UniProtKB/TrEMBL annotation, chain A:
Organism: Novosphingobium sediminis
Ranges in a coiled coil: none
Protein name: Dehydrogenase E1 component
Domain of life: Bacteria
Annotated GO biological process: pyruvate decarboxylation to acetyl-CoA
Function: The pyruvate dehydrogenase complex catalyzes the overall conversion of pyruvate to acetyl-CoA and CO(2). It contains multiple copies of three enzymatic components: pyruvate dehydrogenase (E1), dihydrolipoamide acetyltransferase (E2) and lipoamide dehydrogenase (E3).
Boundaries of every Dehydrogenase E1 component domain copy: 13-314
Required co-factors: thiamine diphosphate
TrEMBL record, chain B:
PANTHER family tied to this protein: ACETOIN:2,6-DICHLOROPHENOLINDOPHENOL OXIDOREDUCTASE SUBUNIT BETA, PYRUVATE DEHYDROGENASE E1 COMPONENT BETA SUBUNIT
Any one GO molecular function term: oxidoreductase activity
Entries under CDD domains matching the protein: TPP_PYR_E1-PDHc-beta_like
Cross-referenced SUPFAM superfamilies: Thiamin diphosphate-binding fold (THDP-binding) (SSF52518), TK C-terminal domain-like (SSF52922)
Superkingdom of this protein's organism: Bacteria
InterPro entries: THDP-binding (IPR029061), Transketo_C/PFOR_II (IPR009014), Transketolase-like_Pyr-bd (IPR005475), Transketolase_C (IPR033248)
Gene name for this UniProt entry: acoB
Organism of provenance: Novosphingobium sediminis
Keyword Nuclease: no
Alphabetical list of Pfam families matching this protein: Transket_pyr, Transketolase_C
Official protein name in the record: Pyruvate dehydrogenase subunit beta
Amino acid sequence: MQLSRDQLLKAYRQMKIIREFEERLHIDIQTGEIAGFTHLYCGQEAVAVGVCEHLSTDDKIVSTHRGHGHCLAKGCDVDGMMAEIWGSRDGLCKGKGGSMHIADVDKGMLGANGIVGAGAPIAVGAGIAAKIDAKGHVAIAFSGDGACNQGTTFEAMNMAVVTKAACIFVFENNHYSEHTGFEYAVGTNKDIASRAEAFGMKVWRGDGTDFFSVFETMREVLEYVRVPGNGPAAVEFDTERFFGHFEGDPQRYRGPGELDRIRETRDCIKKFRASVTGAGLLTDADIDAVDADVMDAIENAVAKAKAAPRPTPEDVLEDVYISY
Amino acid sequence: MARMMYREAVLSTIAEEMERDPNVVVLGEDVVGGNGTAGGPEAIGGIWSTSAGLYGKFGGDRVIDTPISESAIVGAAAGLALSGKRPVAELMFADFIGVSLDQIWNQIAKFRYMFGGKTKCPAVIRMAWGAGYNAAAQHSQAAHQILTGMPGLKVVMPSTPADVKGLLRTAIRDDDPVIFLEHKALYGVKGEVPDDKDFMIPFGHARLSRAGNDVTIVSTGLLLGFCEAVADKLAAEGIGCDVIDLRTTSPIDEEAILDSVEVTGRLVVVDEAPPRCSLANDICAMVAEKAFASLKAPPLGVNPPHTPVPFARELETAYLPSIPKIEAAVRKVLSYR
């Protein structure tokens, strides 16, 4: 399916905003101004955007500890997210969640999640709700090759099949569960999709470094799952993680030249640009204009986050039904 | 008023709320029962008979049999709750929080706070707890001592059919996650229950089940009845006991306890969980902090020993706080000089 010029520009902008949002975080975290643990999604943008470009706010997603990309792709406010990661009171979660716990339920974003494997069961519940409502909405569980080894993910896949939840398990295989290789940690066939298949689901596979592969694959998956009664499906995207497990990770597990190689040959943003300019769908000038616009948006978000009011000690006791 | 069993109060309240609000859904292991068998659906209706007939009345979309997957049950309840439904999930036994603790502790309890107050999570997680069935170490435990310490959860422990009715309705209509602990030894107990389909008991309001000026006894669940028996016996001797049924351990009705201790000066807390970090210790400490001047004797907890729940009848009986043990504790605080 050929995307319109506007669709292409929007998809590119979404990927680029995730990339620059995180490249900037990578710099700002090193100054020590941002507190806590941060896990960057850079390199995987084509998956989040290729999936979420098909979704409306009535479709739900559940994300992971590496969740910035999913949040941004699902429509979470850039300024609100930056402010949240800076721990500001203007943050999407008023500075109470931080990088690993960003949510915007009104936008169908049911939360990043600090517990690996915790999201899939929640997505099943949202998928059951979608099935009950029978309006063709879906719920998507983003999981990595780490979460695919959690028992909760197995429970969730089986329960989704049994209850015919309108649920899609999107496995992003970035080849590392924290600091351990996929080749070591995923036993069966070195393949995640075949696990889902064994639970009785229809499965797809795609290239997670190619936006068009993700987008076209997801079009088929969604066509299937949006049909009431069809139940869940799963898809595995092969992708790359450009940074460490967490910010500050020395990445001693990487092979020589690995990061340079994947940045050079497996960068979804470079590949997108080459593809659309090569096919004459967009010009370099079109893309450069988006790049400039994105850089401004990120600069602006950081400036706002820095200037935003800090939470007060009194705020600790807000947003819980009781405190003692 | 209607006379019904504790278990019937559970079932009828869920049915009434499902009738009233199409967003209320029930899920759990065997809540329908018999799916995929020759006996057909509804062969069971919940192992406690607390969902019997719901499937026939409300259908499979709203009464959902799940595989034995407790993490996925609580997780699905979380996802349903975040998607506008009001799930009532059953964990069968409170002991099974062990296999679903992440979804309870790290997920449903935290959403509202962690997401900056914009998120509701109206999930009710029901589970049967407590000893008295000789069900041994993994099917007889208390769980309130663990769950009460988790910010964001409301923890409810009804002792009578009427309280089941009023508290479960409040739980289902509440926008926060509620752990609803049903004492399995009380399921067959009968009591008068209001007919009003909007009868609700607010959380954090204890019930005074016996009134007296000499000693305050605080409890809930199965042991509340034991405390009442002690109070009735002592009343014949002219000793007056306030017996306070907590109803909810979080929020807790501190005021009711403190008001009573101000008059009696003596406190016994009877708790079915082992002593360390227990509800009994928590309440004794709270009273020592906030009503020290009123105290005429050290507050005293009555707990089982710090052991798993044993199996044999003699052992389980020895394990549980008994009427004689509670009476001895009350006499001890009364005789303190």
